[in-house]
Amino acid sequence: MKVSTFLSAIALLGMSLSVVAASVPDDQVATLRKAPLNVEPTPPIMQKVINSDVKQVRNYPMQPPVIPHKIDGYQIDLKVNKCMQCHARNSTGHSQAPMVSVTHFMDRDNNFLAELSPRRYFCTQCHAPQLDAKLQVENDFVDIDHLMKAKSTDKQ
Amino acid sequence: MLAKLFAKLKLIWRVVNRPSVHYSLGFLTLGGFVAGVIFWGGFNTVLEATNQEQFCIGCHEMENNVYQELQSTIHFTNRSGVRATCPDCHVPHNWTDKIARKMQASKEVWGKVFGTINTREKFEAKRRELAEHEWDRLKANDSLECRNCHNFDYMDFTRQSQRAAQMHSTSLASGEKTCIDCHKGIAHQLPDMAGVEGF
Q: Which residues bind heme c 2 (chain A) (predicted)?
């Protein structure tokens, strides 16, 4: 008796939830999609990758620097790491590309290795090329410098 | 044995050396000319037929490995629809060089017959060696096949990215480097590059 009441209560709850889900307006279902789920919208025009080769300012000191050039077809696998053709220590002379930072040579116990640490091998895990695209979602990130400045002005 | 062979050769020489009894000089000259045209035409037709992508990917070794890898690269699909086929890069366009390469390719027929790379594993195991052959060839002929389309004299550095312009206007312009020195693996996947200069 008790079990069946419990089960029916769960069923009722589930049904009411599904009713709630169905009543969500279309424009809130998937904000980036901007179309009902059963409609295939025309995709936006593909954006061009920034290929300026000009370093971009980091948003915070630990941020992996973004890639200021195209990386189409760059092979990064067990056999070869295409990025390292320019960014390896002994390639930077002729390529004038920034060398991968020393942290990439450290294992998890902070010992320096002679070569890239396996855990830092796959560049695109952290580094990404950038698009010159309009932001789909507003970003309210505040630079630490601005925060500190705001704090010091507050004190005064 | 040797004497027998010698006698045979002597007989052939006598037949070839004697003036024709049954055929006129005109027939022989014109006939020879026509036969020559047919032979030459046939030869070139076959040469052209073996110089097409469809011929190259007629073997599964080429179709399932290198041809698949080519398809995602800019030399296969791009904004203007100009594409390179296998022989554009792998066979010299000049006649003498082409014949030389075709003669070398008899080794590839041998490989096909004996299944040197007839599985993916065998191909992967040989990838470095095969790639090195192509790098050596392009290094030796100053990347001739690249330059058939990418002519240095007509490169507009202002239309290139800064990085590319910097490299092309120095190392490439001075002849110190050739295309293949930097542009390895542009149309196919790279093998294990351990120990290759620049990697």
A: 104, 123, 126-127
